[in-house]
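> call design_seq(struct)
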């Protein structure tokens, strides 16, 4: 398992240290890992296409450990903060749009899910690193920067749950597949918002129902872990309508891409490639 968690924690923290009390549509904030070399900083700033005077927030490895140390081993978090990100504030109702580069473990959808849990909304988010990383530490910096730019204080418990959600989803993805894990978490969130379960047993019923609908087989340990996570969410002052709106927007953006000429072309290329493999294998037996 890679250093995703460390990076995600750092990204959350970065948003919280910015100097601005209010944000406006179009405002851009950049988070940079404090252990980047000068050349790497220049490389990432150029990649993110931001001016030299853009507001930047530095994220430390200590901040990564603060938000991720409870969920993954210290060795996995590592000793260097290198992941970086760019947030562009958007108009109300835009919701969350995530793009990544050199992120190998946390998917765009996982980020969007965790960010919605943390209360982040209406922003274009770009997450990157000078070389391939897992992506976990990014979330810490994003939250940190968002708090400072908007003046909205996100409760510590909510930050912790968002980090735990991302780690849980990524680990589950290793077992059942990234797409299935992401969809499972999204659907459980939707049902929790609808049904407002009052006990952990009621949450387990939702988890079982959703996993059966999606034809996903979970172990008892996985069910217990998910139930404990959503029990924590239930006890937080989370705006569930907002969470579901952010999730719906992520789905919309994927469907738009999938149905666009570009998306159809990419998907067709994948299908053509898979068909060529099938044809080649079939040819071996002719």
């Amino acid at each position: 398992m890679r250093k995703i968690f460390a990076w995600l924690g750092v990204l959350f923290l970065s948003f919280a240290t910015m100097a601005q009390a209010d944000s406006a549509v179009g405002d851009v904030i950049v988070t940079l890992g404090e252990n980047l070399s000068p050349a790497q900083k220049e490389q990432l700033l150029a990649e993110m296409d931001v001016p030299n005077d853009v507001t930047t927030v530095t994220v430390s490895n200590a901040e990564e450990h603060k938000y991720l140390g409870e969920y993954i081993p210290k060795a996995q978090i590592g000793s260097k903060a290198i992941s970086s990100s760019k947030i562009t504030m958007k108009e109300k109702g835009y919701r969350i749009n995530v793009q990544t580069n050199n992120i190998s473990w946390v998917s765009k959808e996982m980020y969007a899910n965790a960010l919605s849990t943390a209360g982040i909304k209406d922003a274009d988010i770009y997450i990157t690193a000078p070389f391939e990383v897992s992506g976990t530490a990014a979330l810490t910096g994003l939250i940190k920067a968002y708090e400072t730019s908007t003046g909205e204080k996100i409760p510590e418990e909510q930050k912790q749950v968002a980090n735990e959600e991302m780690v849980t989803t990524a680990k589950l993805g290793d077992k059942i597949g990234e797409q299935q894990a992401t969809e499972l978490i999204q659907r459980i969130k939707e049902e929790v918002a609808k049904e407002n379960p009052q006990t952990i047993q009621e949450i387990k019923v939702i988890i079982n129902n959703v996993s059966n609908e999606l034809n996903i087989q979970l172990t008892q340990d996985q069910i217990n872990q998910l139930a404990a996570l959503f029990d924590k969410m239930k006890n937080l002052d989370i705006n569930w309508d907002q969470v579901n709106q952010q999730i719906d927007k992520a789905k919309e953006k994927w469907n738009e891409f999938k149905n666009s000429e570009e998306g159809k072309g990419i998907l067709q290329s994948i299908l053509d490639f898979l068909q060529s493999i099938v044809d080649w294998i079939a040819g071996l037996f002719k």
